[in-house]
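lol ok so funny story. i was supposed to be doing the assay writeup but got distracted and ended up predicting the structure for this chain instead. priorities right. anyway since i did it might as well share w the group, maybe its usefull for someone
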Amino acid sequence: SPARARTNSPIVDIRSFCPAPSEFRSSSTGPREIGENQCVFHDPTTFANGFPHDTFRALRADDPVSHHDHPTWPRGYWVVARHADVQRVSRDSTTFSNAPNPFLDAEMPEEGEAAMAELLISQDPPTHTKLRKIINKGFTPRRVAQLEDRVRDRVDRIVDALDGRNECDLVTDIALWLPQQVIADLVGVPEDEREQVFRWTEL
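and the output, tada:
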């Protein structure tokens, strides 16, 4: 998990904020080699052949909090590899921040993009908490149960659309469309306008 500490200094060693049981030992200042693999976590090709489990296993054992250079972020970024420490970072909004956004992109400037700063995932408490309370009202157990038949119907329609094909891409042909269609159902987007709305979400 990449992490940003709230600070004005060039680089903050976030290991000082993550106490035992992790016992951080790393002092790396850039992408390091673990075994035969070089870790460049902002490069999508690192994950092109699946999740690098061996790399993260080595990180958890030998370098649980490591600092890495980034082509457009002068301060670089930290990779937090152990579950307990990821929880610590995720729950401590006083020390760590989602702003300007939590996305790790090789071409994105460190200050992020204005539109992304407005996303819910980019917000910190108390703003994030207030927005979550509003959204959660639409996802109570009773409300979700009421959606079951509609979701099943939507899944059937997505799968039926693949009839006659010899192959499909699970992500682009199925997984991509289900959440978009369900959200469109929830907010009432007309069927004939959904294609345009979905294109807007990709801008």
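The chain has nine helices and five strands. Residues 6 and 96 are 5 Å apart (CA to CA).
back to the writeup now i swear
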